[in-house]
């Protein structure tokens, strides 16, 4: 049976996560006839635009963390404010409903933007046939069809990595997405992986009352961050009650009697841990399986990432890959968004390159961690002459008033030119404060420029000002 063919488009975007929907909207804004194909559906079987980021990732995690913080504060922090509350309980079902309502609202807003910009939205599985044609198989199992376009943008995102020995059943051994949909607080919880995802999930469930243990295979905690910040984070999270076991390599995880027994090895030998739930948060992989037909000859590396050049172009003319599908930058939403905009503008004849060196990174824990630029250890390894300014958050009046005094701002500048090389923050609202740091570095500011910029007082941002001033009193190292 011959497959039905639809009218050609200027651009077809496969995937409606942050990279995909941003790219589709920008393409339409630039006058390109655009279609976006997405296969995500919620538990009700309805289309839910936004990808993992919205449905089972950052936004869902942030919504639950906010609820968990309120619950924890009501139980532990009210007395210092002269407020008393008795018999505070957490209704996990209602908490999940609030999270799902936020997801539905944001997903609906994306759909509204698609409609406003006349983007053809297709809920279906998509397969790249060649550089001009895509096969779509609707979710309702109606006959597949073929659509064509001058340009095709691949933006299918990523999914959790499977871990040998810890087979996910999403009942007792669960992935990071299911960890945001539990119907009860586990009494004892283990998480494989103490990276960004593992720490964010730990911050939610530990505040809701779960005894939480993180098993991290690496000997170094948060190796991608500045290690002074990482040491401070380790101290704070441990004092909050998280149990961080480094150098712990999981060998197996077995279910039995409604429990999970986790066996792992560290420098002291082999250990067994019995928990109610085990979350596997040991990394993510690109969603490229069955993305392209074999005859399309789309070039992938050995780990499934799409090979692209510095302009996000694949080996196929007119086919681009963005977001988590490439190794151009880390798997973070705003990187994908910027690539989506970049590719759309490139197709329209504009060229505004991305500065991958100044992508901010954030760990949405409490306190948050945020950074941009180089770490101290990387700069010292390169032999760069540097100077460092540090300002503790507890020295700001706003942090004291909030009762959120843990953390610091660390600024690293070149010892000779005073150019800003890296800015690292751990503290409440670090994700908001890092924007100023990114802007300063994007405009090639010096630490003196930051020190001479007037900051409103009292604000948390005064800690950035204070760290810049501290640089003026230190010798280079």
TrEMBL record:
<dbReference type="InterPro" id="IPR001100">
    <property type="entry name" value="Pyr_nuc-diS_OxRdtase"/>
</dbReference>
<feature type="binding site">
    <location>
        <position position="283"/>
    </location>
    <ligand>
        <name>NAD(+)</name>
    </ligand>
</feature>
<feature type="binding site">
    <location>
        <begin position="193"/>
        <end position="200"/>
    </location>
    <ligand>
        <name>NAD(+)</name>
    </ligand>
</feature>
<keyword id="KW-0520">NAD</keyword>
<dbReference type="InterPro" id="IPR050151">
    <property type="entry name" value="Class-I_Pyr_Nuc-Dis_Oxidored"/>
</dbReference>
<keyword id="KW-0963">Cytoplasm</keyword>
<dbReference type="GO" id="GO:0005737">
    <property type="term" value="C:cytoplasm"/>
</dbReference>
<feature type="binding site">
    <location>
        <begin position="331"/>
        <end position="334"/>
    </location>
    <ligand>
        <name>FAD</name>
    </ligand>
</feature>
<feature type="binding site">
    <location>
        <position position="216"/>
    </location>
    <ligand>
        <name>NAD(+)</name>
    </ligand>
</feature>
<keyword id="KW-0274">FAD</keyword>
<feature type="domain" description="FAD/NAD(P)-binding">
    <location>
        <begin position="9"/>
        <end position="340"/>
    </location>
</feature>
<comment type="similarity">
    <text>Belongs to the class-I pyridine nucleotide-disulfide oxidoreductase family.</text>
</comment>
<feature type="binding site">
    <location>
        <position position="324"/>
    </location>
    <ligand>
        <name>FAD</name>
    </ligand>
</feature>
<protein>
    <recommendedName>
        <fullName>Dihydrolipoyl dehydrogenase</fullName>
        <ecNumber>1.8.1.4</ecNumber>
    </recommendedName>
</protein>
<keyword id="KW-0285">Flavoprotein</keyword>
<keyword id="KW-0547">Nucleotide-binding</keyword>
<feature type="binding site">
    <location>
        <begin position="156"/>
        <end position="158"/>
    </location>
    <ligand>
        <name>FAD</name>
    </ligand>
</feature>
<keyword id="KW-0560">Oxidoreductase</keyword>
<keyword id="KW-0676">Redox-active center</keyword>
<dbReference type="Pfam" id="PF07992">
    <property type="entry name" value="Pyr_redox_2"/>
</dbReference>
<dbReference type="GO" id="GO:0006103">
    <property type="term" value="P:2-oxoglutarate metabolic process"/>
</dbReference>
<feature type="active site" description="Proton acceptor">
    <location>
        <position position="457"/>
    </location>
</feature>
<dbReference type="InterPro" id="IPR036188">
    <property type="entry name" value="FAD/NAD-bd_sf"/>
</dbReference>
<dbReference type="InterPro" id="IPR004099">
    <property type="entry name" value="Pyr_nucl-diS_OxRdtase_dimer"/>
</dbReference>
<dbReference type="InterPro" id="IPR023753">
    <property type="entry name" value="FAD/NAD-binding_dom"/>
</dbReference>
<dbReference type="InterPro" id="IPR006258">
    <property type="entry name" value="Lipoamide_DH"/>
</dbReference>
<dbReference type="Pfam" id="PF02852">
    <property type="entry name" value="Pyr_redox_dim"/>
</dbReference>
<dbReference type="InterPro" id="IPR016156">
    <property type="entry name" value="FAD/NAD-linked_Rdtase_dimer_sf"/>
</dbReference>
<dbReference type="GO" id="GO:0004148">
    <property type="term" value="F:dihydrolipoyl dehydrogenase (NADH) activity"/>
</dbReference>
<dbReference type="GO" id="GO:0050660">
    <property type="term" value="F:flavin adenine dinucleotide binding"/>
</dbReference>
<feature type="domain" description="Pyridine nucleotide-disulphide oxidoreductase dimerisation">
    <location>
        <begin position="360"/>
        <end position="467"/>
    </location>
</feature>
């Amino acid at each position: 049976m011959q497959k039905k063919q639809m009218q050609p488009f200027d651009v077809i975007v496969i995937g409606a996560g942050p990279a995909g929907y941003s790219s589709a909207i920008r393409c339409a804004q630039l006058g390109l006839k655009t279609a976006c194909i997405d296969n995500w559906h919620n538990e009700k079987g309805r289309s839910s635009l936004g990808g993992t980021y919205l449905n089972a990732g950052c936004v869902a995690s942030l919504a639950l963390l906010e609820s968990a913080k309120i619950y924890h504060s009501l139980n532990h922090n009210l007395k210092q404010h002269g407020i008393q509350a008795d018999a505070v309980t957490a209704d996990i079902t209602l908490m999940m409903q609030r999270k799902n309502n936020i997801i539905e609202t944001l997903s609906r807003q994306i759909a509204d933007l698609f409609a406003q910009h006349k983007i053809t939205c297709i809920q279906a599985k998509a397969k790249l046939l060649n550089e001009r044609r895509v096969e779509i198989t609707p979710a309702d199992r109606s006959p597949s069809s073929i659509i064509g376009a001058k340009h095709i943008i691949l933006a299918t995102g990523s999914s959790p990595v499977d871990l040998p020995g810890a087979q996910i059943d999403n009942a007792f051994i669960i992935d990071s997405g299911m960890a945001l949909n539990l119907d009860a607080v586990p009494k004892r919880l283990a998480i494989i992986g103490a990276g960004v995802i593992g720490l964010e999930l730990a911050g939610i469930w530990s505040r809701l009352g779960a005894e939480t243990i993180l098993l991290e295979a690496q000997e170094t905690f948060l190796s991608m961050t500045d290690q002074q910040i990482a040491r401070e984070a380790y101290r704070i999270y441990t004092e909050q009650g998280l149990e961080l076991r480094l150098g712990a390599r999981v060998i197996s995880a077995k279910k039995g009697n409604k429990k999970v027994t986790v066996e792992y090895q560290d420098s002291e030998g082999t250990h067994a841990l019995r928990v109610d739930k085990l979350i596997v948060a040991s990394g993510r992989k690109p969603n490229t399986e069955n993305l392209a037909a074999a005859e399309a000859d789309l070039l992938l590396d050995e780990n499934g990432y799409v090979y692209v050049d510095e302009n996000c172009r694949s080996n196929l003319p007119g086919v681009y890959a963005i977001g988590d599908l490439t190794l151009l930058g880390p798997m973070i939403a705003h990187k994908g968004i910027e690539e989506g905009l970049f590719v759309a503008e490139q197709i329209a004849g504009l060229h505004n390159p991305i500065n991958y060196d100044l992508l901010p990174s954030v760990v949405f824990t409490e306190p948050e961690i945020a950074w941009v630029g180089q770490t101290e250890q990387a700069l010292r390894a390169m032999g760069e002459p540097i100077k460092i300014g540090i300002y503790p958050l507890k020295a700001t009046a706003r942090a004291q008033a909030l009762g959120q005094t843990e953390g610091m701002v660390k600024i690293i500048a070149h010892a000779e030119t005073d150019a800003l090389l890296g800015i690292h923050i751990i503290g409440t609202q670090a994700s908001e404060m890092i924007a100023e740091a990114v802007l300063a570095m994007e405009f090639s500011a010096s630490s003196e420029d930051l020190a001479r910029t007037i900051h409103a007082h009292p604000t948390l941002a005064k800690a950035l000002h204070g760290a810049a001033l501290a640089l003026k009193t230190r010798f280079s190292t």
